[in-house]
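Task 17 of the worksheet. Students: predict the tertiary structure of the chain below and write it out as structure tokens. Keep your answer in the requested format; marks are given for formatting as well as content.
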Amino acid sequence: MTNDQIRDQIRRFLTTTFPAAGVELTDETDLLEEWFVDSLGIVQTVMFLEQTFGIQLGRADIDAVNFRTVATLAALVEARLAG
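Model answer:
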């Protein structure tokens, strides 16, 4: 799976699950400041990533760096898929 495919799936999930009126979701949109409503959104996103990509995320993975943008989430998924 390519990074582009991963980003596409993450964007589709976020726009469907957490629609944000008036905000365009790009690879660099700040998810923590402009997109997520609350911490429940983070939990739902973790569950989506684990189920969709067959990865396991640890507590240390759930931070402001990894969850900043679609691009950083995709990089996290790609790293977990690589081993």
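Marker's comment: The helical segments are 3-17, 31-35, 39-53, 70-82. The chain has one domain: 3-18+26-82.
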